[in-house]
Amino acid sequence: MPIYLFWGEDEFALNRAVQALRDRTLDPAWVSFNYDKLSSEQPDAVVQALNLALTPPFGAGNRMVWLADTLLFQRCSDEILRELDRSLPHLPDSSVLLLTHSHKPDGRLKSTKLLQKYGEIQEFSPIPPWKTDLLVQQVRRAAQEVGVKLTDDAIQLLADSVGNNSRQLYNELEKLLLYGFTDDRPLNAAAVRTLVTASTQTSLQLAATIRQGDTAESLGLIADLLNHNEPPLRIVATLVGQFRTWLWVKVMVDAKERDEKEIARAAEVANPKRIYFLRQEVAALPLAGLEQSLSLLLDLEFGLKSGKEPIALLQTKVIELCQLFQKAKS
């Protein structure tokens, strides 16, 4: 009785997983008989989905029932909970019940605990842009899935270019697959640079220019990010993550900590080898400046969430941040 909950805001990655599950569950000749997708807006959608999942498939293959955008794991009535408790343990092995939603399930609800007992939960959330190690791993996995051979420098460049945009990642990999179709050799960074459209500027680049106190370049990056429809709160989230990492590395370095693994643990950096480069990045930065930068970023986040005009607020706070690090250099 395979039961799945797919959740997360990365709609493209989630839908790819749904399609993969559909392909391996259903016989193509019997799809119209054995595949049902229900919207949570339909009356009695949960009961209908459970009844369909309890029905044996017609012909070859298995049955798949998809209940999309369900709120079962954000709120659940006693009546529906009883239906779940009655049905989930008895779903036949020939049926797959899939439930999807963009938000994380509430672990306190009995419906979530029931699903954890009988099913499997998979998360499809965008990787935070500052977790560069995870972005590289995502590119490596996706390249293997698509069948594109890439050198290590090409993988790094592709991760830098597309960030956490999984839709663009697969689009670019399909393009690279066609380019390297006649050649078994791995594609290098030069090929990626020629063919891949970078997103183009990333919030991590913005963090680096702020750290260097380059006001003009930082304002240009803000304009580029907004022109590419990057949400202001996502820009701020990336900046907070990066400056928080720099702050922790600086704190540990100033405390004379030499163990890179210990510094990585404190800064929540997955790959301790990155600490060597992070130490170089924070070497000339004052601890007080990094602490103050997080205070300014908190003010920026509060202003955006309070409904202030985002462009002017972003520009103002970025100028203040750059001036903060210009003073540190002088």
TrEMBL record:
Entry keyword set: DNA replication, DNA-directed DNA polymerase, Nucleotidyltransferase, Transferase
InterPro entries linked: DNA_pol3_clamp-load_cplx_C (IPR008921), DNA_pol3_delta-like_C (IPR048466), DNA_pol3_delta_N (IPR010372), DNA_polIII_delta (IPR005790), P-loop_NTPase (IPR027417)
Keyword Protein biosynthesis tagged: no
Enzyme Commission identifier(s): 2.7.7.7
From what superkingdom does this record's organism come?
Answer: Bacteria
Q: What class of enzyme is it?
A: transferase
Q: Name one GO cellular component term.
A: DNA polymerase III complex
Reactions listed under catalytic activity:
DNA(n) + a 2'-deoxyribonucleoside 5'-triphosphate = DNA(n+1) + diphosphate
Say if the entry is tagged with keyword Membrane.
no
Give a GO biological-process term: DNA-templated DNA replication
Which segments constitute the DNA polymerase III delta N-terminal domain? Answer: 4-118
Domain (DNA polymerase III delta subunit-like C-terminal): give its ranges. Answer: 203-309
Query: One GO molecular function term?
Result: DNA binding
Q: What family name appears in the similarity comment? A: Belongs to the DNA polymerase HolA subunit family.
Could you identify this protein by its name? DNA polymerase III subunit delta
Source organism of this protein record: Thermocoleostomius sinensis A174
